Amino acid sequence: MNAGMVRFLKYLALVFIAIGMAAGYAWWNYDAIVAAILHPQTSAASASDDSFSLVTADGHHFALSELDAAIASFPAADVQQKPLVLYVHGFGPEPDGDFGLYTMEELAKGAGADVIMFRWPSWISVREFPVLNAKAASERLVALLRQVAERREPGGTLAGRPLVIVAHSLAGEVLRHVGEADAALPTGLAARILFAVPETGLPGHRAWMEKLTFADEIFVFINKDDPALQVATTMFGEARLGRSLENLDGSAEPLAANADYIVLDPESWRHYFFVSGQRNEAIDEVFGEILRRGSAALSNRYLRREPAGNAYTVVGPGTEQPEG
């Protein structure tokens, strides 16, 4: 091998080492890198009517005013006994794309329910985090819930059907504004709300969550390893409700008295932990049972009650609580 080739191979090795070091830095500091690009929305909210819709798991879209048509699109068999899951999605450009529809199918199977997505403008650009759009979405969501309340009256198209709301990620910010608006929705409108790693601030959340009195039960699922919420923590400089029950200074945050908190431990980096293939056996069972049964599922073998009383940690498999 001549001297020129030796020099070339040395330079090539240095290039590969530099690339490896850069990749390693990006891996360990991805939250700071993304947060340097992504910033909270400051422009006017995108609140035109065509920015919002109802979506069924087969991909059909309906205007928010077409709730009856969306309900009528479901198979009629046993419809009076089936729950209705209202899925409020999080941040992203195509919430009703293939993965979003798959997520709805998973929720339908897990709850034995019909599922409708509340689609809102959750994407502006790779640089803007749509927090103002989330506030605008909360106003439309309240109007939709009032429609649902009317149809739950005796003789209505939703009479006798339990309503379950699944709010994923940035949908936590949407529901925060619903609580802060104190919209006076009727008590018992929703059987339960499941906050799946809510992307909203931890400090002070108790105040608005305790105003969500239209839900009989509230569950907050927390994943300390969630990478999306790690980015948000860096971006806002504040602990996120879906990632921790402690503030950044280590102080414990007061919990809402009307909620139960489920800490997903052990858990991985999966942001969609509630979708099949994205979770482990224990989380699969716990989320599915709470989705179907609510607080009756808190005695699950994989749940360990914490001293806080309304906080639980997912344990196992292999370390589950003894039965009996």
Automatic annotation (TrEMBL):
GO terms for molecular function: hydrolase activity. Keywords: Hydrolase, Membrane, Transmembrane, Transmembrane helix. It holds the Pfam family DUF900. The chain crosses the membrane at residues 12-30. InterPro entries: AB_hydrolase_fold, DUF900_hydrolase. SUPFAM superfamilies: alpha/beta-Hydrolases (SSF53474). Gene3D superfamilies: alpha/beta hydrolase. The keyword Electron transport does not apply. The keyword 4Fe-4S does not apply. This is Alpha/beta hydrolase family protein DUF900. It comes from Ciceribacter lividus.
